[in-house]
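<derive_structure_tokens>
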Amino acid sequence: MDLYRIDSAEEFEMIGPEEMLDGTGISVVEWAEKAGDFFPERTMAVTFSIEEGGKRKITIEGTKW
């Protein structure tokens, strides 16, 4: 899901994401910070950033599977 055009957590909830997030598969969400605290407890966050000198950093946080 790409939440770039979502303006609030309430708007995200209105599109009915439960079916996509509570299933047995994996959901990938871009711009997830726009959804607030809507995600289930078993969520993992993968963050990509660019550090000094152009070096890329990938951080993974959350529940172990």
User: Anything to note?
Assistant: The CA atoms of residues 21 and 39 lie 7 Å apart.
